[in-house]
What we know:
disordered C terminus, 6-stranded antiparallel sheet
Amino acid sequence: MRIKCRxxxxxxxxxxxxxxxxxxxxxxxxxxxxxxRPDPTVSRRHARIWVxxxxxxxxxxxxxxxxxxxxxxxxxxxxxxPGDSIRIGETTLAVVDSADDSGSGRAQVV
Length: 110
């Protein structure tokens, strides 16, 4: 899975071999797969992005400020579509590529 992150004027792209990514900031007990520090508005365990049956999903993990997809607050898990923008704190994410867990190719996203 490839996720593009933008915080303030800095952009980076992270690649993950696994099909599930926990997004947040580290604390003494755990480190998220996708570390969004120094954004102080991101919860320790903020959101989860994963691929299931060829579809990429996102859900909020009861974060303090919530997770937005295309400006709408997530109330339940949501399937991502090409071009969707995920807002976590002051950081914007986009899943630009994700592996299909069935092994048959790529998952449905950008």
